[in-house]
Amino acid sequence: MRVLSGSEPVALADHLSRGDREVGDDVRDAVRGLRVISQLETPSRAYNVCSGRAVSIRQLVEWILDEAEVDVEIRVVAERVRAEESPRIVGDPRLLERDTGWKPRRDLEDSVRSVYRWARATREKGGRTGTERLEGEPWT
User: Fold this and answer.
1) Is pTM beyond 0.85 here?
2) For residue 140, what pLDDT band results from cuts at 50, 70 and 90?
3) Are 43 and 37 a contacting pair, CB within 8 Å?
4) Do the Cβ atoms of 101 and 61 come closer than 8 Å?
5) Antiparallel, parallel or unpaired: β 10-12 and 74-76
6) Rounded CA gap, 115 and 26, in Å?
7) Smallest Cα–Cα separation from 74: which of 15, 126, 28, 116?
8) Residue 97 pLDDT
9) How far apart, in Å, are the Cα atoms of 26 and each of 11, 41, 45, 100?
């Protein structure tokens, strides 16, 4: 949350790599997809529970910063860039859709913004969001 105060830049390993983040889009969509698969009489294939679109880490960070209404520099830290990482990973949900009719219902941007608003409201009420450490609590 220090970053959201605007006092320090956001350091990313690679702001251009893009991945299909459906399971992160909204866990409700992922659970619904897994439930549909589990209800198949004889699931004989591996299914991708995904959106079929790639979103960069930079874009996720920009949505959060926009929702927080802060203007913060986003910086790529060369030491964190992993040369072996694929620059684009996208799942193909067509088989799952064809066999079950499943499609994601929720938009990733809306979900990211909603989670940020929930975390902000929870912290403002004095609750824990799981992003902070209590005194004496080890990092695990």
Assistant:
1) no
2) very low
3) yes
4) no
5) parallel
6) 9
7) 15
8) 94
9) 25, 26, 24, 19
What radius of gyration do the chain's Cα atoms show?
18
What does the pLDDT look like over 14-69, one tens digit per residue?
555 555 554 445 778 889 999 999 999 877 788 999 888 888 888 888 999 999 99
User: Distance (Å, rounded) from C-alpha 45 to C-alpha 37?
Assistant: 10
Residue 59, C-beta contacts closer than 8 angstroms, at least 6 positions apart: none
**Cα distance between the two ends of the chain:** 19
Cα distances (angstroms) measured from residue 44 to each of 49, 101, 103? 15, 16, 19
Two tokens at 16? Answer: 């251009």
CA gap 72, 58 in Å, rounded: 12
CATH code 3.40.190.10 for 3-124: no
Residue 40 near residue 102 (C-beta atoms within 8 A): no
